[in-house]
Amino acid sequence: MLARSILRSFSPWLVTAGLLAPGAATAQATGAAAPTPLTAAGQALFAGSPTPQRVAKQFKFTEGPAVDKQGNIFFTDQPNDKIWKYGTDGKLSVFLSPAGRANGLYFDGKGRLIACADAKNELWAISPAGQPTVLAGQGPGQHFNGPNDVWVSPQGGLFFTDPYYERDYWLTPHPAPIGQYVYYMASETAKPVAVETTLTKPNGIIGTPDGKLLYVADIGANKTYRYRIGAKGELTDRQLFVEQGSDGMTIDERGNIYLTGKGVTIYSPTGERLAHLDVPAEWTGNICFGGKDRQTLFITASEAIFTVPMRVQGAR
């Protein structure tokens, strides 16, 4: 997931990598949107218009949406160091501030919000009352670039990506970058173990609800891969899923994968492109399903948040 300052400095690189088309930032920021291509299978995913509807635009850079058991959505405004709540009643409220410069979020089975806390390159578990506990980043041998996105398996294991992005809010010299890996923690007290060390810059991550498959976006190589998850969290049978990287990502009940960056692109489990949604924002950072019925697609994009009503539910 890219912070706003990082997006600006990386814009030429994003164009080169194919993640941002020349002129796309200007076109999207002014609301100019090309027709949205949909296959028949893609059209069937939407309850109405596939055009994202803006809910609010009062933030600096939105990221990391996650949904709780009730369908409330929590997301970050990283430059303002806040975690917001978008309730099932449609109301917005601040859940936590300061919030450790939180980035990617995901709820665990205990109802805690697992957060990639960029301020000190840690992984947090935040209680429903807003009390954080550091899970990783302070122990011996736990030097990270900055945990970025996280997924909690149904067995309770935590997978997170650790790319290197220089932050403009670092107050002290930062340690030199280390390997940009995917890590696994078998439990909240376990030591993080690198389970994927060959990617250029791992970013978005999501798994299937049965805990058998993991998708990881290599935003540096503009590719997304699929892995089988072993009994001890090991990743095997790596396969190229699509020739497209992603910032954040999500999955629906049918196994379709939703990638972000230049808007939202939806792929079937076999990698067939089903739909692309143009989002009127400079960058689409992340995405999840929420609402009481889990049929609202919630999109964080630059200074704003958007929703799209769906016929499918998010994977549980």
TrEMBL record:
<dbReference type="InterPro" id="IPR013658">
    <property type="entry name" value="SGL"/>
</dbReference>
<keyword id="KW-0378">Hydrolase</keyword>
<dbReference type="InterPro" id="IPR011042">
    <property type="entry name" value="6-blade_b-propeller_TolB-like"/>
</dbReference>
<feature type="domain" description="SMP-30/Gluconolactonase/LRE-like region">
    <location>
        <begin position="61"/>
        <end position="302"/>
    </location>
</feature>
<feature type="signal peptide">
    <location>
        <begin position="1"/>
        <end position="27"/>
    </location>
</feature>
<dbReference type="GO" id="GO:0016787">
    <property type="term" value="F:hydrolase activity"/>
</dbReference>
<protein>
    <submittedName>
        <fullName>SMP-30/gluconolactonase/LRE family protein</fullName>
    </submittedName>
</protein>
<dbReference type="Pfam" id="PF08450">
    <property type="entry name" value="SGL"/>
</dbReference>
<keyword id="KW-0732">Signal</keyword>
<dbReference type="InterPro" id="IPR051262">
    <property type="entry name" value="SMP-30/CGR1_Lactonase"/>
</dbReference>
